[in-house]
Write a structure and sequence with these properties.
mainly alpha
Amino acid sequence: MPEILMVRRDLDIKFTDVANRRLLDAFLAQEDNQQLYQRVLNSPDDTQRNDELDSRFQEFYGEVRFTKFISSLIRFTAIELAVRNQKTSNACQPTDEIERVMDSLVSDPDKSEREDNFEWKDVLADKRILDAVQALTEKEQEMLTLLYLRNLKEAEAARLLGVSQQAVSKTKKRALLKLRKQLEGGG
């Protein structure tokens, strides 16, 4: 226990530590503690009141320490989660960048729906990108065609192909990562 309230030894403690002073102020902010403290000041020889005041302060101090512990635990958990989310976000970023590039290359804001007969060679002017798309497997090309040329959502493409949405997402990410590697010259 810090030497904030050593009522039995010295009632007029000099508070040089600001944190200790704030702790004492918080303790004495409770009306019943303030009244007991005043009674101890008025009759310093009453050991029963001194013991009660010490006991209350020890209980109060224990609650403050527990609250500080819980607050620290919450803070560090929040920091850990933020770091984990940042790592996850950074891990997904390359796919997201390629997806944005693909969207910008094939986007057509004037049409509400894509025509079914579009092919990659009709919408991609850059031969490198066209070659990279054509180097994908048929399944990957079909997935990108549904998602980008026909502008279907993943759930719609999954329904159309008779697979799960997770399978569509996985195939799309794999295809986009392959495109990125090929366009960066890695393969």
